[in-house]
């Protein structure tokens, strides 16, 4: 039973993280300032594009064919 609960918790965490990356890839701004590294002058170190966000989102989904 404990194993099932851990698996469900991890499943929900990865679905949430994947959804967040899809949201950012589609232009969402919520939370982006907290996770994108910045220099001391508040300049972004990187500016992820849609494709990059989608690659991470699909990786978090961890799709495996049978």
Can I get a quick summary?
With 66 residues, the chain is mainly α. The chain has one domain.
Distance between the termini: 25 Å
- Poorly predicted runs of 5 or more residues: none
What class would the helix/strand composition place it in?
mainly alpha
Overall mean confidence score, pLDDT? 90
The coarse overall form would be elongated
Question: What Rg is obtained from the alpha carbons, in whole angstroms?
Answer: 15 Å
Please identify the oligomeric state. Answer: single chain
* Number of DSSP strand runs: 0
Order of helices and strands: HHH
Number of helices: 3
The residue fraction in helices comes out at 55-70%
The domain count comes to 1
Strand content: under 5%
The main sheet comes to: none
Structure description:
3% of the residues are buried. The mean pLDDT is 90. The protein is mainly alpha-helical. The protein is elongated. It has helices spanning 2-25, 32-35, 50-61. The protein has one domain (2-61). Helix 1 (2-25) packs antiparallel against helix 3. The longest helix has 24 residues, at 2-25.
Provide the fold topology.
Blueprint: H1 2-25, H2 32-35, H3 50-61
